[in-house]
Specification:
By secondary structure, this protein is α/β, with parallel strands linked by helices. Helices cover 34% and strands 21% of the residues. The strands form 4 sheets. It has an 8-stranded parallel barrel, surrounded by 7 helices. A 6-stranded mixed β-sheet has the order 6-5-9-8-7-11, with helices on one face.
Length: 496
């Protein structure tokens, strides 16, 4: 079953996956989280995709989280006569902030403050760091630069000044309009680009809580300043994305593996979901199979402790989006199946609340009793998220009647969701859960399970109790395959 995979898959929706048919195939292949990239596309296009996902999710009985990724203050070069220019290494080129059409020897930039933040010797990187310039002289709104590493520069490619704190807000006017749209349509997560400090998170939080309190915030770590304020950022947000594209440019490519591991470790410690992103299976944009290096990269990101791995162009515009999702699923599953040290009761995780202590106890109970599953009866998903951070080998099942919670849990490591009807007591809830799990083949008669819940059962109450159950017998039969929730179906039912 796809549900047996612990690390979740985030896929970017684009031309290759935006139709209803393509979205259905992506979810069947193993997609857990749909990323809507607001650097591209009109609101009406995103709305169509959003509605399709919700419809397909309901039909397939497969919750899917929707992640709105805000563009942020991305600096870009302008446009060129003919669509691009050649930049030979060693040549001198002028960078200008005037609104001009670029041409041979002239690169326009949309960042009006550029000349005030650079000086002789400042390094400028373009096109994801493939092209490097060094400032030789600042002349008003123009910079004379030497091309250190050249290449062909196309229209609207990214523009980075590594290590410099840019005098711009993390939320642009475009972001605020996009955010209003996302919150009005109840996206599950909002990803904030180019986060530098806790102040950026607080500003976004005020807006989110006023319009859509259930929406959670993911901070994208891609600036040096964010690393300087990392712990405070992690504590204030609901999740982290290791955005390796701009991050590698900022810290230097040789530092990226260390930084990635440190970010993931801190997120695991503070019980915050963490996404590892950028070029995970980049060669599959064009090819049917990944490189050996990409396979290893995916496997190592799993072993590092990632909650989710993200596909970008691979699913947005690639030739093999569904094969790509299934390939990532297979790599993750193989690592999880055969790594003896992967599942561990991680006592380094902070649990400074009653629900945290209950979560730790539930994991230890499951280990000592060889329990099949830890079932978290929850409204917000908080306890299930904390349980996840202890990385138990037992299945983690978040049982709730809140659809928004079911969707959000799709980003968190190891959590399988279960929708239950409104109940009056723990025993009634457990009867529902037991019957559903038996029907779906998740547990069998005689299996031990651990149940966490709040006593008394009041909406929003904090988890404070643990119960140990043995699954009973009875006349419950496993449902026919076509009636099973998608992720409880045999993996070989769909081919890609």
């Amino acid at each position: 079953m796809i549900a047996n995979r612990r690390v979740k898959i985030v896929g970017t929706i684009g031309p290759s996956t935006s139709s209803e048919e393509a979205l259905t195939k992506a979810i069947q292949a193993g997609l857990n989280v749909a990323r809507l990239n607001f650097s591209h596309g009109a609101h009406e296009d995103h709305l169509k995709v959003l509605k399709s996902i919700r419809k397909i999710s309901k039909t397939l009985q497969a919750p899917v989280a929707i992640l709105q990724d805000l563009q942020g203050p991305k600096i870009r070069v302008g446009r060129f006569e003919g669509g691009g220019i050649d930049l030979p290494s060693g040549s001198i080129v002028t960078v200008t902030t005037e609104k001009k059409m670029g041409k041979a020897g002239l690169i326009p930039s949309d960042f009006e403050h550029l000349s005030s933040i650079v000086s002789k010797g400042t390094k400028i990187l373009m096109d994801d760091g493939l092209i490097e310039l060094r400032v030789e002289e600042v002349r008003g709104v123009e910079l004379d630069c030497r091309v250190i590493f050249g290449g062909y520069l196309k229209d609207r490619k990214g523009f980075n000044v590594p290590g410099i704190d840019l005098p711009i807000d993390s939320l642009t006017e475009k972001d605020l309009k996009d955010l209003e749209f996302g919150l009005d349509n109840q996206v599950d997560y909002v990803a904030l680009s180019f986060v530098r400090s806790a102040k950026d998170i607080r500003k976004l939080r005020e807006i989110v809580e006023a319009r859509s309190p259930s929406t959670q915030i993911v901070a994208k770590i891609e600036m040096v300043q964010a690393l300087d304020n990392l712990e405070e950022i992690v504590r204030l947000c609901d999740g982290i994305m290791v955005a390796r594209g701009d991050l590698a440019i900022e810290v230097g490519q040789s530092q990226l593996p260390r930084v990635q591991k440190e970010i993931i470790q801190l997120c695991n410690q503070l019980a915050k979901p963490v996404i590892t992103a950028t070029q995970m299976l980049d060669s599959m944009v064009e090819n049917a199979r990944p490189t050996r290096a990409e396979i290893t990269d995916v496997a190592n990101a799993v072993l590092d402790g990632s909650d989710a791995l993200m596909l970008s162009a691979e699913t947005a515009s690639g030739k093999n989006p569904f094969r790509c999702i299934r390939t990532m699923h297979e790599i993750i599953s193989e690592v999880e199946r055969n790594s003896t040290h992967y599942y561990r009761i991680n006592m380094e995780t902070e649990y400074l609340s009653p629900s945290g202590a209950i979560a730790a106890s539930a994991c230890l109970c499951a280990l000592k009793l060889n329990a099949k599953a830890i079932i978290c009866l929850t409204s917000s998903g908080q306890t299930a998220t904390i349980v996840s951070k202890f990385r138990p080998k037992a299945k983690i099942i978040a049982a709730t009647n809140h659809v928004t919670t079911l969707n959000r849990m799709e980003l968190v490591w190891g959590i399988q969701t279960l929708q239950v009807k409104i109940f009056e007591g723990g025993s009634e809830a457990m009867r529902q859960i037991e019957q559903t799990l038996l029907e779906c083949g998740v547990v069998k008669t005689g299996d031990k399970v651990i149940l966490t819940l709040a006593q008394p059962l009041v909406e929003g109450a904090q988890t404070n109790s643990i119960r140990v159950y043995t699954i009973g017998g009875g006349a419950v039969n496993i449902l026919p395959v076509e009636q099973l929730p998608l992720r409880c179906q045999p993996e070989d039912r769909y081919t890609f």
